[in-house]
Amino acid sequence: MSNSAHELTRKDMKAPDKFQVAATQAASWAAARRKPILVAVGALVALFLIALVVLSVRASGSQKAGSALYQTLVAASGEISSVPLPNVPGPFYKTDAERQKAVAESAAKVRQEHGGSRAAVTAALAEADARFRLGELDAALAGYQAFLAGADKDDPLRFAALDGVARVQESKGQLAEAAQTWQQAGEIKPFADRATLERARVLAKAGKADEARQLLSGFEANFKDSRLRPEAAERLARLGTGK
Length: 243
Prior knowledge:
Elements: H1 4-7, H2 16-33, H3 42-59, H4 63-76, E1 79-80, E2 92-93, H5 96-113, H6 118-133, H7 137-150, H8 158-171, H9 175-185, H10 192-205, H11 209-217, H12 219-222, H13 229-239
Parallel strand pairs: 1-2
């Protein structure tokens, strides 16, 4: 991923187009590289939160709310180390669980103190991701749903929330529900290829190999420019012909 989210200046932060581009690029990067369910993605979370903060500080209309949300980014970008590292500002955490707890607490504070703001809506997504990584599935689901309820219909981060809902459902063994959520996520055009790939994976996991095979068979034709075509072809090969 480029460093566009890092490099935005205060002047840039007044330009809505640059905010949307930065957020969408980060969301796209995250979606394209999302590993299968339950795989550790600590660096992804920190990078993705940059996009959350960049978008929300501009749209929240509240400097206090934006500043509070920025503290969530600070917590998420902290290093896991038992001792301070040279030339690294910190914060430092002994474990990833400790870091995720700090993120969740920071985001929850934003939501409590700045309810109704765009920053609070974004904080719901940040908290949900942290809760998921902590194994707090019900709290994570509530956070993702809160974001979806509060965000605009064209918010570029809606895919991330639907991704989260599907991951929670899969973790709970609710594979039919997860497949439906991925179908819904597929309606967001920039991420339709990733959603289709994940839906096929969940269907196969649920024992619906024929449905998964049908999705993967049409992947190359439906997503001619997708970088995920090799992955789709590999998964189709693993499923076989079904005959």
